[in-house]
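Weekly modeling sync, notes
Attendees: S.R. (lead), two postdocs, one rotation student

Agenda item 3: backlog of single-chain predictions. S.R. asked that every request posted to the team notebook include the full sequence so nobody has to chase files. The rotation student volunteered to paste the first one in as an example of the format we agreed on. Action items at the bottom.

Example entry:
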Amino acid sequence: MNPKYEAAFKPFTFRSGVEIKNRITMAPMTNTSAHENGEVSDEEVAYYQERARGVGAVITACTYVTRNGKGFPGEFGADSDSLIPSLRRVAHGGMLK
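Predicted structure, as returned to the notebook:
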């Protein structure tokens, strides 16, 4: 490996103290797999699990934060506290049900 790229593959610690395993970040990509009510689906969790294996951070697809803010079918929501468990599944890599 070219030595100038070595830093990209080493752990990185943010000022907040949060550490990621490397500086590789997955850009946000829309996959339109959420349920109609905005809950994250098992398919969406599996999508992120598969892609998160080698990267240090994952930026999820867009999420609507107001009831009338849904931009397209399959977008996951954050417009209600009732959706927090669903979002938590994505944040924890699908380890929660």
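Discussion: group reviewed the output briefly. The chain has a mean pLDDT of 91.
Action items: rotation student to repeat for the remaining queue; S.R. to check formatting next week.
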